[in-house]
Amino acid sequence: SAIFNFQSLLTVILLLICTCAYIRSLAPSILDRNKTGLLGIFWKCARIGERKSPYVAVCCVVMAFSILFMQ
Predict the structure, then answer these.
(1) pTM score
(2) Distance of alpha carbon 28 from alpha carbon 18, whole angstroms
(3) What stretches pass through the bilayer (predicted)?
(4) What is the mean pLDDT of each run of 10 residues along the chain (71 residues)?
(5) Contacts of 49 (CB under 8 A, 6+ apart)
(6) CA spacing 20 to 30 A to 65: which of 33, 34, 43, 56?
(7) Residue 32 Cα to chain centre, angstroms
């Protein structure tokens, strides 16, 4: 049902980016060996989370505020 609700889709994507960046910080070899193909999506999400971390952090705060206080 997250596919049909735009806010839920954004929440899932944001959680995926944060989770992949955290996993890559703990064990980089897990995501680095799969840079292409279907599993390459997780490597790309980790790179977005690492390089755009201030923007991702702001998006997490805004999303948390909107979930807690706007719904």
Answers:
(1) 0.82
(2) 14
(3) 6-23, 53-70
(4) 77 92 90 86 91 90 89 69
(5) 17, 18, 20, 21, 22, 24, 56
(6) 43
(7) 16
Separation between Cα atoms, residue 53 and residue 11, nearest integer Å: 16
Q: Which residue has the tokens 């201030």?
A: 54
| 3-class SS of residue 2 | coil
In the chain, the amino acid numbered 71 is Q
Count of beta carbons in the 10 Å neighbourhood of residue 41: 12
Query: 50 near 24, Cβ under 8 Å?
Result: yes
Rg of the chain, C-alpha, whole Å: 13
